[in-house]
Design brief:
It is a single chain. A 5-stranded parallel β-sheet has the order 3-2-4-1-5, with helices on one face. The chain has a 5-stranded mixed β-sheet with strand order 6-7-10-8-9. By secondary structure, the chain is of the alpha/beta class. The protein folds into 2 domains: 114 residues, Tetrapyrrole methylase, N-terminal domain (Cobalt-precorrin-4 Transmethylase, domain 1), CATH 3.40.1010; 111 residues, Methyltransferase, Cobalt-precorrin-4 Transmethylase, Domain 2, CATH 3.30.950. The chain is built from 9 helices and 10 strands. The termini are far apart. The chain is 34% helix and 20% strand.
Length: 244
Amino acid sequence: MTFGKLYLVPNLLGATRPERVLPAGTLDIVRRLRHFVVENTRTSRRVLSRLGMECPIDDIEFIELDKHDTRNLDLMEHLGACLQGEDMGLMSEAGTPCVADPGALVVDLAHSAGIQVVPLVGPNAMILALMASGFNGQAFAFHGYLPIKSPERQNAIKELERRSSSRNETELFIETPFRNNAMLQDLCKCLHPATRLCVASNLTCDDEQVISQDIAAWKTFKGDLNKKPAVFLVYCEPRHSTRK
């Protein structure tokens, strides 16, 4: 029997029209799928309803990933439909699957079983933020979440600055939205005034905001980042270089 394909389905980043951020080809494929591996069934049902599925939502099978036990995935439980010749979708809670979520383990399982993996085009917050930052887009690294508590977090921030300077590299990371303001305070406290910081929040939404400036300017920032999904980017040019 020929296996079905595992499609990696980009999710919306916020309250925006699907047609604004998802190509017609992506929507055509997603709308015909009947099996999805997801992190949360309730939110995934809501998203697929917005995408205009060809069948009733109640006819779709949702297989949830256990966030606390993702190392013990069962092939038949998570990818059984593919093994039976039917296509499946893997969808993150927001943005691109397998980036800052456990979906990569399902993809690895699919490769091990000989199931074709097909990434679909859609919004990725990290890449969109990098594009809009004005920082080095040829050398960059994504670090996920930084430590929550100090001094671990402050040490991590300083290490990112050292790494950026030594490698001429843009350092990207994310934070839980309700801790954004506290993160900004720590960044302003720990980074050199000339180091540059970009914060890209609510990307692809009507209230999207991308601010890219040095830490000295961020110290006078009066805005509020609370509860806004955001990507933080740190860039410290090598000391021997000269800005043009």
